[in-house]
Design a protein that fits this description.
By secondary structure, this protein is mainly α. The protein has helices at about 1-25, 25-35, 35-50, 55-65, 70-85, 85-110.
């Protein structure tokens, strides 16, 4: 139980750190958020918990593919927010991400990469 609480605390601290830095510097906050720290932490947790190397490798592999469909949302969000406000822009961005993911899954399936 202590280990689980430790993982929660470290992971939560990372999110709080990013939001606090972003309050002071848009660019630095975005840079830190763009770093794959949560993924790296997840891989560290898997390794420390003695998960098989194949599971850790698969985590990195699928993370790569799952990041790609999120990129249009981040590109569109600033333009959407200026027009529709925060919540609607976030909802539209989420729909674009889901649509992008479905499209990517269909394309990668043709190449033998199954994301679902």
């Amino acid at each position: 139980m202590t280990w689980l609480i430790t993982k929660y605390a470290i992971t939560a601290a990372l999110v709080v750190l990013i939001s606090e830095v972003a309050k002071r510097s848009d660019k630095l906050g975005a840079l830190i958020a763009a770093l794959p720290m949560v993924t790296v932490l997840a891989m560290i947790w898997l390794y420390v918990e003695q998960q098989p190397a194949e599971k850790i490798s698969n985590h990195a592999w699928y993370t790569f593919w799952y990041v790609l469909p999120t990129l249009p949302m981040f590109l569109m969000f600033p333009f959407l927010m200026a027009r529709f406000g925060f919540w609607l822009s976030l909802a539209i961005g989420a729909m674009v991400t889901v649509t992008s993911f479905a499209s990517l899954a269909a394309v990668t399936k043709r190449f033998g990469i199954f994301l679902l």
